[in-house]
Amino acid sequence: MSSAETETAASRWALVLGASSGFGRAAALALARAGHHIAGVHLDGRAARAEIDQLVAEIEGSGRQALLFNVNAAKEAHRQRVLEALAERAGSGGVRLLLHSLAFGSLRPLVAPLGGDERLIDQRALEMTVDVMAHSLLYWTQDLVARELLAPGGRVVALTSAGSTVVWPGYGAVSAAKAALEAQCRQLAVELAPRRITVNALMPGVTETPALRKIPAHAQLLAQARTRNPHGRLTRPEDVARAITLLLSPDADWITGNTIRVDGGEGIVG
Q: Cα separation of 239 and 23, whole Å?
């Protein structure tokens, strides 16, 4: 590798949306160990300050830079603020990966159960869920490309779930968002192909994360996954983080437009 290529590799950044916990946190750490500086977007209160500080310390302990923003990833003004700062650090073509790992949406039922009086989802909550968990991928990608931050050979990876095609209690709005997210990935894969940027969705198996614990049926989902998975355990955030780093290899240049299971075979067991 030439000195210019070495310098380019050493200055590459990964932009992680949803970096403070679960899949995003595990990916940020794995990407830092793989040689990427980390720009992370998260939305947390003061109670999470110690965990954020620990994340920064671990990234910097890998010899990489950490640039974290506690902002709403779905707001345009916040997005532009992050990208302005990232442009100053990364420069043109300096972003190697956009990882979309946002898990914030409504888990209310779509219609009232017989004899029930649960609060139902409304238009505002439904639109917010789909905007945050699906459409925001498009807006971040558009702006990265427009600013020429995401160079040829770049990667866009979004995290979906099996709930995009199966029904879980209370998951209707998120299911719609995940289905839309997968559709965005397919369309972006085709439109970004001339720029040699790949786009894929990863579908982890059931994983015990803060986001999963908010699903009303999470205990049942965890129990079923432990029974069904051929490996006899749940998927871990680190399993997914390793898959993300694999997709960064130049050998993965021809892998695009897919929804790829990262579940140890859980999804193929009847």
A: 9
User: Where in the chain are the domains?
Assistant: 3-265
Residue 70: phi and psi, rounded to 5, are -95, 80
- Residue 52: Cβ within 10 Å count: 19
Place of tokens 């940027």: 197
What CA–CA distances, in Å, run from 26 to 3, 70, 85, 119? 30, 18, 23, 34
Q: From residue 221, how far is each of 130, 157, 225 by CA, in Å?
A: 23, 25, 6
CATH class belonging to 3-265: alpha beta
Distance of CA 142 to CAs 7, 85, 147, 156, 184, Å? 26, 17, 9, 11, 12
> What is the reported pTM?
0.92
In the chain, which residues have pLDDT < 50?
1-9
CA angle 47, 220, 122 (to 5 degrees): 65
- The pLDDT of residue 2: 38
Residue 67 tokens, joined = 């640039």
At a CB cut-off of 8 Å and minimum separation 6, what does 18 contact? 24, 41, 42, 73, 99, 100, 101, 102, 103
CA angle 75, 93, 29 (to 5 degrees): 70
Q: Give the separation between CA 227 and CA 205, rounded to whole angstroms.
A: 12
DSSP state of 207: B
pLDDT at 218: 86
